[in-house]
Design goal:
Layout (H helix, E strand, L loop, with lengths): L5 E6 L7 H5 L1 H8 L3 E6 L13 E2 L9 E2 L1 H12 L7 E11 L2 H7 L4 E6 L7 H6 L5 E3 L2 H8 L2
Amino acid sequence: MTKPNMRFDVITLFPELFAPFLASGVTRRAYDAKLVDVRLWNPRDFAEGNYRRVDDRPFGGGPGMVLKVEPIVEAVEAVRRMETDEGHLVMLTPQGRRLDQAKVEELATRKRLLLLCGRYEGFDERVRQVFRQCPDRNAGADLLTDLADE
């Protein structure tokens, strides 16, 4: 079996939103040709308790809800342990720096990317502290708004 050129591990509360991207267009052809390997992970699967909550009020106060530190960190660490190459983590949040063409070209040289998708007001600040070597990226206001409204 041919090994894919690139692996994407997408950690998202809504993995079902990614299915259409793997079923049509250029991304489908790359996926079908096994040029890329895309794996979807839901942080709820790494949360504890009967309700598997992944959101809470911001640590230290503030408006809205953020993604809790425990299930997010557990999800990222579990997914990283699945391969010898831990991959390059990219946190996608509205607060992050714009994901531009130059950065996309740089990321395309990696063999494995872990895409950590934000929701609500983003991540608990402690998630950023745990993964401080990973700057936030903003994939574009239109994309993030459209996905958040689903």
